[in-house]
Amino acid sequence: MIVPDDEGVNLSRTAKSKNTSLQSADHEVPGMRAESLRNHNLQLLTYRIITGSEVMSRADLAHETGLNRSTVTRLIEHLLDFGIIREGSTRVGPSGRPSIMLTPARRTHGGIGAEVGRDYISACVMDLRGNIIAEQFDQVDVPAYSPQSTLGKLATMVNELTSQIQHSGLSLCGITCGFSGIISSSTSNLHMSPHLGWRNIDLEKHFRSKLHIEVPVDYQNTANLSALAESIARQKTGHELSDFIFISQNSAIGSALVLDGKVSSGLHGWAGEIAHITVSDEDKPCDCGAVGCLDAYIDKANLLERAGLPANAPWEQLFASLHKGNAQVTETVRLCGRYLGRALSTYINLVDVTTIVLGGVLKKLLPYYEDALRDELTRRALCSNWMEIDLQESIVKEGSSLQGAAWNSLLRFLSAPESWQRPTDIALSYFPVDETPTTFID
């Protein structure tokens, strides 16, 4: 089950888990009004159906959540009426009685994800089944433009996306914009993004004013969104993780901390920033203003420069050199593994989480630096003396942060049943029938 809250998104799936913050309630509890109780249970059923790895019937949901059958039946009718779920195939149970399976509705409600990278902007619309309905991508040298100009371009892209589907009747429920850097959890202010070259930018002011639609807008760190996409993908495939450190690299290093199924951003919004842990006594300057940071050694430009390659070379050139056995490139990647191991050891010692999920280029480079990484973890992580540190590769394809942004928009919408609107008949018939979901899993 997934429960959005003020500090992050709870990704714990099982309703009866002792760690989940959303429990079933058949009877009114002190301080909870009937409407609140109903919304609470609607969320409980919704998240189980939307993110579960198995399709379930009304009876299955009643058994798993502890709600009585009549309550589940009544709430399911509401979810069907508002286009949140749909009835699917029929399954005959052990008793011989047929049961109708319930699945996420297709193309009734859509969440918009948008992202600003160092050299691109992108946006997509995703439905409740995780299908991408429309998307756009534009190559942009973001540091060459002002933040105001880039945010205007992103708003224009979102406007074009909404125009593409304006006659479909699809209900757009929100927008989430992702950025690398430190974003306040209480305001829309981006404090700094070294790789974009941005500081103290009011994202709301420069983005929303250019939008043509009135929907809720959220602003998130891209690594947190990638961790969200990873968690949902693992839930939907039955391989969920409740606690893990997520770290990925494309042009910059991004990381996120998931505790008890929730992406944790800390009190102010910048928890989990592994890129700026000190890993060397050298006074190598980092774009953040400090020296000796992990990012100063293994971000794309610095890594390529140390490997003897042009700072703007594509990643493919690095991999080609590795395949040829280039000694300088091979040693550079191994050294990056050591720096990464030092940063992760500090991280593990502080937060007591021993599962690490690697994404992006870090996943692809793992065979070339894994031994160096594990050596540093063994030497420096305290827990390595009595337990194994689990290294896992991300199961999500590239573009996980954009997927996470769209999911975040949908989950924020699902967390507020009082705001739901019924889909129009057009939305239910506009798109051609296609029961094959978009594949995001590697």
From TrEMBL:
UniProt xrefs under InterPro entries: ATPase_NBD, ROK, WH-like_DNA-bd_sf, WH_DNA-bd_sf
Coiled-coil positions: none
Family: Belongs to the ROK (NagC/XylR) family.
Source organism (scientific name): Mobiluncus curtisii (strain ATCC 43063 / DSM 2711 / V125)
Skewed-composition ranges (Polar residues): 11-24
Listed name of the protein: ROK family protein
Annotated signal sequence range: none
Top-level lineage group: Bacteria
One matching Pfam family: ROK
UniProt region (Disordered), positions on chain: 1-30
